Amino acid sequence: MSVEQGASEPRRRRADAVRNTETVLQAAKSAFAELGVDAPMREISARAGVGVGTIYRHYPQRSDLIIAVFRRELEATAAEADRLAAELPPAEALRRWADSLARFVGTKRGLAAALHSGDPAYAPLPEQFIGVLGPKVQRILDAGAADGTIRPGVPAKDVIYALSRLADTRADSGEQDGLMVAVLLDGLTAGSVGAPPPAAAI
Question: What is the mean pLDDT of residues 83-98?
Fold first, then answer.
């Protein structure tokens, strides 16, 4: 083996490991959505095209795999906020990002049985949810407040929780909640120059 070949071998293995990880997490996401969080590991490994041992090597406990799926989707949703903020005007970025959040909420629904099980392994996730997304969304809200297209003074945390709840119920009750998402976003963006935050619901 040449020196070049010897040096490239660790890089190839790392690349293979990254690909395997992404494949496993995508397979787990789809299996959890279809079969629930108790989906057999053999089913996940078959979808990923890897051995069961590969999954257990990276995720010794089922909770490790569930948390990894959650964090992967959370990071993707945060990255989408950054991309939209860079490419679109703030009000349009917020509307587009609401769709991205709805997809993430759909993933969370597939994991709900585990996330609400009381297992302490999942305890940090709600704080991470806001901790990761909050600064990204606040950037969009602040930019919109500065250019007069988004109502000023609304915390990102409130927007994220409101959109999340609407997206969660939308999966059960259909398009009516899609309308409510539009109403919420219209309230944040329509006639927003100098407007105070909406009154808290009683």
Answer: 97
Provide the 10 A C-beta neighbour count for residue 178: 14
Query: Per residue in 13-60, pLDDT tens?
Result: 455 666 789 999 999 999 998 998 999 999 999 999 999 999 999 999
The answer to whether residue 172 scores a pLDDT higher than 60 is: no
Determine contact, residues 142/169, Cβ cutoff 8 Å: no
Question: With contact defined as beta carbons under 8 Å apart, do 35 and 43 qualify?
Answer: yes
If you ran DSSP here, which 8-state letter would residue 122 be given? G
Alpha helices by DSSP H, listed for the chain, are 3-35, 41-48, 52-58, 62-87, 90-115, 125-147, 156-173, 175-189
pLDDT at 82 over 60: yes
Two structure tokens written together for 82 = 């950054």
- N- to C-terminal Cα distance for the chain? 73
Report d(CA 178, CA 196) in Å as an integer: 25
Q: In the chain, what percentage of residues exceed pLDDT 70? A: 81
CB hemisphere CA count around 141 (13 angstroms): 20
CA angle 119, 123, 124 (to 5 degrees): 145
In angstroms, the CA 132 to CA 66 distance is: 18
